């Protein structure tokens, strides 16, 4: 699979709420927090969901305490479950499918996330053998999106995640090592390994963090204003309320829309081409 094709696959993973039956507003469990002001059990429609599956407070979500709604991104899983898996038949029109549809949604969401990672990885300059393995994995994942609901519910997603993670780690290591080798000063790659680090609130303003591994790290409320974050691996990184104002993330790896939505930034923040600038970021 060539790079241009995979880049288009990655860019195409965008939610289209007009083709979804409000699955993020119904299938997911919500507890009171700084992100939500209500309790909503999984499988129960949000009180703000209208009959046409739109949100009656969509333009006021953050003002009314529903910050989490503006952060969430299903990468297009919602419309696939609604229009492909269940052939355009809603849970309201077919109550017997309600529970199954809600169970399938988070599974499809995970599949789309893995597709996004695999497609992005192939777009990098990596050895052909690694690219071939990723291409095979990507095609397998794409095939999963066409399964029926029972087949989706029986999937072992842990197995898929484990095998893909090995390939993603190999990809990020190759890219990071190449960048680190070109940085001034002879530093060892392990000095840039901060996977699963607890850097909550850490002051990183104006730092050059190119090539850093932040897999699974906690960067909640970290100050990364004007920080160079190119070729940084962000798989599973918690960026909630991290200050990315003026930061350069143009070639950051495995960054998701949800991670960016949860962070803070401005018009000077440089994002990867497949990531959209959140409307709630300050100008």
TrEMBL record:
Domain of life here?
A: Bacteria
Q: Which Pfam families does the UniProt entry name for this protein?
A: Pentapeptide
Kindly give the InterPro entries that the UniProt entry links to this protein: 5peptide_repeat
Q: In its UniProt entry, what is this protein called?
A: Pentapeptide repeat-containing protein
């Amino acid at each position: 699979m060539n790079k241009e094709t995979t880049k288009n696959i990655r860019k195409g993973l965008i939610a289209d709420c007009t083709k979804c039956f409000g699955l993020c507003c119904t299938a997911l469990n919500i507890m009171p927090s700084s992100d939500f002001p209500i309790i909503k059990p999984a499988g129960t429609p949000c009180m703000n969901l209208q009959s046409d599956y739109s949100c009656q407070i969509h333009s006021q979500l953050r003002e009314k305490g529903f910050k989490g709604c503006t952060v969430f991104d299903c990468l297009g899983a919602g419309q696939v479950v609604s229009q492909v898996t269940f052939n355009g038949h809603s849970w309201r029109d077919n109550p017997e499918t309600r529970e199954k549809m809600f169970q399938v949604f988070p599974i499809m969401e995970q599949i789309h996330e893995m597709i996004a990672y695999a497609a992005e990885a192939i777009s990098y300059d990596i050895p052909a053998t690694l690219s071939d393995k990723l291409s095979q994995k990507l095609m397998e994942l794409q095939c999963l999106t066409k399964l029926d609901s029972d087949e989706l519910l029986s999937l072992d997603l842990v197995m898929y995640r484990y095998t893909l993670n090995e390939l993603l780690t190999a990809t990020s290591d190759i890219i990071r090592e190449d960048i680190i080798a070109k940085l001034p000063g002879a530093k060892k790659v392990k000095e840039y390994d901060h996977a699963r680090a607890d850097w909550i609130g850490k002051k990183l303003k104006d730092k050059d963090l190119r090539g850093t591994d932040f897999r699974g790290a906690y960067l909640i409320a970290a100050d990364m204003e004007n920080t160079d974050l190119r070729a940084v691996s962000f798989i599973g990184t918690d960026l909630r309320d991290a200050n990315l104002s003026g930061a350069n993330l143009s070639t950051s790896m495995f960054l998701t829309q949800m991670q960016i939505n949860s962070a803070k930034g401005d018009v000077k923040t440089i994002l990867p081409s497949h990531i959209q600038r959140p409307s709630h970021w300050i100008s």
